[in-house]
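Researcher: Please translate sequence to structure tokens.
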Amino acid sequence: MKDMLGRDRVMTAEKALALLLETIGCRRTKTVAVDIERSLGMVCAEDVLAAENIPAFARSTVDGYAVRAEETFGATESMPAYLNLTGEILMGEQASDIAAEHTAFKIPTGGMLPADADAAVMFEHVQVIDDRLIEVMKPVAPGENVVQPGEDVATGEVIVKAGSRLRPQDIGACAGIGVREIRVFERPVVSIISTGDEIVPAERTPGMGEIRDTNSYVIAGMVSAAGGIPRKMGIYRDDYRVLRNAVEDALKESDAIAVSGGTSVGAKDMIARIIDDIGNPGILFHGLSLKPGKPMIGGVIQGVPIFGLPGHPAAVSVCFGIFVRPVLNLLSGLEDRPAYRLKGVVRARLSQNISSAAGREEHIRAMIEEREDGLWAVPILGKSGLIRTLVKADGTFVVPVNRNGIEKGEFIDITVF
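Model: Translation complete:
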């Protein structure tokens, strides 16, 4: 079997992509500092480090009462521990009072613990006698229902790693540590060239033998979804000089070029010849053992990857996913992670036992690991409200309302962020 250039062997899509990525090598888009509000979907160019402890003070994770844990030991509903209610801590206020012996402070979720208090008792486990006395009916351990200083994020800890695509939770984490500006790779610009004497603009009524341009819109949408910037250059007739001029113009302002049409064998097949004529190194492959998408062209001109995409819309989508998206990921500095190659809901095995209270549906964050025997979900556990559990997770899975947990090794469905 011969390929589109008459060579004896047809290259596989896997080998073609590897050759393309190897030829591009270490080429990346430029880096720029942007406000975090403009960084969604961009790739972090350098590690973001915490300049301070988060939280800076011990705070409650529940609505309840701040107490000395040892003064609740042994408390039961029949033999509660009695504590004097000596104050209330409001949100945003500094708890300046010291928790004296046998005292409690009313405290909201996120409130600052007073000095010498080391735990918080939930409202549900307290009976209020009057405005000065409470009964604690369940003991708490030191540190229970409390986030300690630096427990979420420690000074110098990496919050967002270089090579990570920035998600809403990553941007929120940056804001949480006081980072308002972040260095990112610029979005790769992809010039889109439509070819074919039969192609007319979408707003024009086609005549006999003509069809409206659809592929440039499909390609532009996929470029945007992949984190790039589409640059539609228009429709060009099947003329060598016209198409060559379009490609040479695109080279001046593009990180990649996508040409729609002009890839089939025949008199009008000029894209491959143009790529080779401009050269350096030129064509890498033309024709693949792939369906749909056999006439796919891939090349590099002066460091800029160029794709000759088939004219069939289904083949365009397939070839974009196999070739163009990985190249855009490389150009934009994205590090390879399983979650970046996955979409929607994926199946994975749980890496450890997870318990849950029956009667409620629990959503648990998890990181996806790719091992020799498949995908594994590693739960990211921690107290509610912690920044690091958000940025480390790739998605969430659910413990159903009628189950007490899930055992290690069971298959679960993870909804990828």
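Researcher: Any highlights?
Model: The mean pLDDT is 90.
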